[in-house]
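Hello K.,

You asked for the raw outputs rather than the summary table, so here they are, unedited. I folded two proteins back to back in the same session to keep the settings identical. This is the first:
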Amino acid sequence: MTKTDLSLDHFKLEDTRVTRRYFGKFEKITNHLTKVAATMEAESRLSRADIEAMTRYLAGLNYTFRALAHKYHFSGRWDHAGQLTFDRVDSGFPVYQELLEMANDALQAERHLGTMPDVDTLKDQMVRVIVGEQAIPTKLQFALSHRLYYEELLKGQLFWARNDPQAVWLGNDGDRRHFQVHWAVYDSQVNLPTIYLMDVYDTGRTGLPKDERRWPEAQQHLMAQSLAHLKLLTIAKGFDEDFDDLHPTRLRRFHIGPMYSNAFTRQSGPLREVLEQARAPVGEDWALVWTEEELVAERVEHVKSGWFGTVERQIFALDPFAGQGGETGATRMERSLIMPERPYQALAERDPPGFRDVRKFVVGDRGRVLSYR
């Protein structure tokens, strides 16, 4: 791994084995995430609607890493293979630019695939080179990895830099339609996937997702406000004030990461020391932070609108233990740790301050997830 000229925090993976280990680690991590979400549902921390939305994005994250693994499968072995750049200080995830390039490649995937031999043809050609020429078919292997990369992009359903809002109808409360609006971004400031879930009551004439005027405006508004440094209170109040007949009653934001790993990241603090002490085998020397922020409306006020009208405005409950709630801009915030058994044992033995009230999800290769305080 060597530093890039762009940032001291961003590093390129230039060795083939290291690159494959990096993607192998994330393959395990992303596979665990959907199981952790299912455990949260069993604990009644997430609803069925929440799970359906979250699973879509977590599965998409898995597909994104699978595609990038194909793209960089030959980094270090082939001059034109390229190298993955990731943020090894703040997140442990690929940098935002990687997802932008992937989205651009997806637009051209069909054209590229149309000019490339299919998978079976490439494999036959590789066999002939190995048997006939007794050589390693590096160029053909590289072509196959890129074929698989473009095929993965063409399948879709990946986690993109922008995953525009979708509205799911949850039912009616009198003349109010109840929707869950969900969307996600790969935040460019912190290089982390971030998922948003918002409960909205709609008192408009036409249901929100079928409203040709309000729905595009609402989508654009939410995407423009999806920044890690913005508080949930700022996002929710802005939406509430811009749309008189849309009433956000609950807004949640899930930060997936950062990922800590002795082999790849350079974060500091107790978690880094725990991983050093654990001496876990390859593929199990990691811990992932999962943070949930939640903002809930506690009551409604009617404020004057125009000469004679009034509109509803939500009054949100703020965390009473965070300086009037102004510090967090949320009703509550909870951090969890997802980690394999060996790092968890080291964490339990070391018992560093600040981690006792953090929820721990201990994951295993057989799909078992154990939840601890």
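The second followed immediately with the same parameters:
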Amino acid sequence: MLKEILSTDVYALILIFARLGAAMMLFPGLSSAAVFTRFRLLLALAIAFLLLPSLAGQLPRMPPDPMSMVLLIGGEVTVGLFFGVLTRVLIMPIDIAGSAVGFAVGLTNMFTNDVVTQEQSQLLTGFLNLIAISVVFVTDTHHLMFQAIVDSYALFLPGQPLPFDDFSQALMRCASDSMMVGFKLAAPLIVFAVTFNSALALLNRLVPQVQVFFVGMPVQILGGMAILAFCLPSIMSWFLRHFSDGLQPFLAPG
């Protein structure tokens, strides 16, 4: 009797860990190489263990053969990867805004290692990514990512056929919205760049003797950074609203 209970609990823990661990592998912030692999593993196991009493009743019975078990775990990993990719798409507006701001300010040739994406990116992109992840965790918005995983058991039942069409459509809509939000976040700097460069072009035509590049570049950097500092709270607020709204359809009402 005890052996059957233990095997059932281990089976349920593995299923929960498969979905949760796959999602945490891609969650912004937690997926960074700056976070130790052992810490991510232990955190996923701890959260799966805490969720075991509340989710064990929603799991199917243990399959009789190993192949069915492999397919079941593969389906859980697929659902987890979907939510992981979804959160990465939801944070994409910061990358788009950072690239647009870099072009507008004139700092496109300054590169750094982005601690969030683990890729070489523009200095302002890495700066905005770091602030965005910090704001997500400080405001407890990251709880929505874990809540979406828990509530997903009511939408995507383990062992049932996966709605790959719905997955692809949801990701496409989310990517489209993220692109639009990214350009909206950078809109003040884009307007500044167009206005300032137009003024420099007019000055160059009126006074050809003036070296507009040497005169305008410091002003462009200082002006752009000043506008970015002024708009940064609104940018992060708008990003948090977009991030929360993107996860809202997967949360249980109430």
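Residues 76 and 86 are 16 Å apart (CA to CA).

Happy to rerun anything if the numbers look odd on your end.

Regards,
P.
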